[in-house]
Specification:
By secondary structure, this protein is α/β, with parallel strands linked by helices. It has a domain at 12-29 and 44-262: 3-Layer(aba) Sandwich (Rossmann fold), CATH 3.40.50.11970. It is built from 12 helices and 16 strands. It has helices at 11-17, 61-74, 117-130, 167-173, 191-196, 218-225, 232-244, 263-274, 303-310, 317-326, 356-362, 366-371, and strands at 22-24, 48-56, 80-88, 94-99, 102-108, 135-141, 157-160, 163-165, 178-185, 201-206, 254-259, 301-302, 327-332, 335-336, 340-341, 349-350. The strands form 4 sheets. Strands 1, 2, 3, 4, 5, 6, 9, 10, 11 and 13 form a 10-stranded mixed β-sheet that branches. Strands 7-8 form a two-stranded antiparallel ribbon. Helix 5 links the parallel strand 9 and strand 10 (201-206). Helix 2 crosses helix 6 and helix 6 runs antiparallel to helix 7 (232-244). The longest helix has 14 residues, at 61-74. The radius of gyration is 20 Å and the shape is globular. It starts with 10 loop residues before the first helix and ends in a 7-residue tail after the last helix.
Length: 378
């Protein structure tokens, strides 16, 4: 097996698609109070504060401003707050309140590293204190490379002058449990990422592949996210339909809506499935499994397709049944930027052991231990 991961990508992908590595995770809230119950209740906090955290001190800075302009065009006051933190290339980090057709700068910071978990946690806590609400949603916007460790060419989440946030540290930085997290970053729709965030949100919306640089279609999804009872399945579907209508390389997308309350059960069923089976990393043909990234050395694969190919004679129906409870919506285009076909997609990617520079780190992840994936390393 390879000792390291080769990160060569087409320039178009690195500059344009990797931007939307951001895996935005959107969570569905089933406990929102209806508007009619709030009429005349001036002492009640706003229904929801939706926070967008944009770590954009990188090559995606202009895309960030484009997305903010989209938000401004469609925002309507519905007893909700839309608050954006942005750290762009051309300015210091600051907080914006989005309103119809405009934004208002609420707070300005001295320059700092927005890809630092501690700084992120501080900013999110300050926004929550400034704009308290009955519920909170979060959009994480930047580069991303799934669960992979920070401080290397590959990123986990965010990008600020070569610095990134490890996914474990990211989970620790989130100050509250969000109703939903939408990850507008590449490759964040992995079972490893979802499991690390399971106690920080009820629902996640994310892409298992890279995301085209235009990111999520905010003009289509912001009205739904600000609704009294957001339909997160519709948000996911709007993302897919937007890219599925494109042509050429731009017709490239995967998307999934993940119910985090089912992830521990998914891990338990996976653990039971793997318990008495043997997997040989040296002889297994990784290229037989559906790939979900564009790297020369792939490290993200379709979860169910891996299980099927690794254990071809096993009954995987119990695992598929639990997965159907965990992934509430999934969709994919026929191919990804002309580099590979997508013939199967279960809604979650996973890692296949075999890279010596990643295996040790991977075994520290909660998913690896809870699901029994650690047995695959022996």
């Amino acid at each position: 097996m390879a000792d390291s991961i080769v990160t060569n990508q087409p320039t178009f992908l690195k500059r344009k698609i990797m931007k939307y590595s951001s895996i935005y995770i959107i969570l569905f809230c089933s406990f929102f109070v209806s508007c009619d119950k709030r009429e005349g209740k001036n002492d009640l906090p706003p229904l929801r504060t939706l926070i967008v955290y944009m770590s954009a001190d990188n090559d995606l800075s202009e895309d960030a401003w484009d997305n903010i302009r989209e938000m401004q065009r469609v925002y309507e006051e519905r007893g909700t707050n839309l608050i954006v933190f942005i750290d762009p290339v051309d300015d210091v980090p600051h907080i914006l309140r989005i309103e119809q057709g405009k934004n208002t700068r609420i707070k300005t910071y001295s320059e700092f590293n927005s890809a630092d978990a501690s700084q992120m946690g501080t900013v999110l806590q300050e926004i929550i204190e400034m704009y308290p609400a009955e519920s909170y949603g979060l959009i994480l916007w930047s580069h991303g490379t799934s669960w992979l460790p920070a401080a290397r060419m590959l990123r986990s989440f965010a990008e600020d002058n070569g610095r990134q946030i490890d996914i474990v540290a990211l989970a620790g930085a989130l100050p509250v449990r969000f109703d939903f997290i939408l990850m507008d970053a590449c490759l964040m729709g992995s079972v490893e990422v979802a499991y690390e965030l399971r106690n920080k949100t009820d629902f996640i919306i994310a892409s298992s592949t890279e995301i085209i640089s235009t990111g999520f279609p905010y003009e289509l999804i912001i009205p739904e996210l600000m609704a009294t009872k957001p339909d997160l399945g519709k948000v996911s579907e709007n993302y897919f339909n937007f890219y599925n209508r494109q042509t050429g390389a731009f017709r490239s997308a995967t998307i999934a809506l993940i119910n985090t309350r089912e992830l521990e059960r998914l891990a338990a069923v996976t653990n039971l499935f793997i318990a008495d089976r043997v997997f040989d990393t040296q002889t297994f043909d990784r290229t037989s499994v559906q790939r979900l990234d564009v790297y020369d050395e792939q490290y993200t694969f379709d979860f169910i397709d891996f299980i099927k190919k690794a254990f071809p004679d096993a009954d995987i129906n119990p695992l598929k049944e639990q997965l159907d409870k965990t992934v509430l919506y999934k969709a994919h285009t026929p191919e990804f930027i002309g580099l590979y076909d997508i013939t199967t997609y279960c809604g979650l990617s996973c890692y296949i052991p075999g890279y010596t520079d990643l295996d040790d780190y991977y075994q520290q992840l909660n998913w690896c231990q809870a699901s029994g994936f650690y047995r695959l390393f022996h």
